[in-house]
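Researcher: Re-running this chain for the archive, since the previous output was lost when a drive failed. Same request as before.
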Amino acid sequence: MVVPIEDTYAEAFTGLCTRIIVTAKDEARLRKAACDSTALPSVVINRTEGGVERWLTTDEPPDGRRGAILQYYGKYDPASPEKSLDRFYRELSYRIRQGILVVPTTAIYNAYDSEKRLDMMDRVGHCGDGYETETTYKGRRVISIPLMMGDFIIERYIGYGLGVTGGNVWLLCDSEDAALKAGDAAVAAVMTVPFAVTTFDICSAGSKPETKFPEIGSSTNHYWCPTLKGKIPDSKVPEGVKSIPEIVINGITLDAVKKAMKAAVQAAQDVEGVIRISAGNYEGKLGQYKIYLKELFP
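Model: Regenerated structure tokens:
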């Protein structure tokens, strides 16, 4: 059965981004650092969001250990680029200090090829309280921070640039089980696309810009909540749809986001119980990009 793809688009945004390699001595420590660091608050409340691009084999990281490529994204305001960058740097340092540095045996290396670089000495290196040292390792300039379980190594300069946030696909399913299965397949497919990440894995909470409670930020997209169908007059949920997972996709480039969206749709289409494929947007009022689903499948 061919799953219909709606003639709509995902509305995406420009965001600050960076890309790093994190390594650790074993799988348990690596996964804790990668998952903890990318699971903190999201860009909708002016923080940052992150995701695991892919897990690395031991011959890929500079230090020959287990590793992963992580991406982080922050809000970018073209009217105040310096303020946006300062906020992004501050939030990134929180994720590194609280999510990676504290996990035993971890290290960080730059994975973003850019002339624009963040100096990690000020907000990470000085965790050594003046006892940190600088050296060269495998041709990389790194900071060595003494800790109670050995030294934490971080490359001093981390590249950054402008990426694309908020690409997405919606999987309209006939059951929660189908939604979870389709969502898992879509997430796995995105992880095969270089330079793209799913920042929420399977997201159960599509949002909308307007809200009755502005103090909490974006709130539920009530038009698309299946349990509200029949209870509200403006429900947009089609008949038979019981669950709608959203796969949110960010990328270092627009092309990476498009490729990841296409891969997610192709993977979900093979799952029984997927009724339609759609995407979320704000009628083009907020984002800089419109990624039309039909253009992904000419």
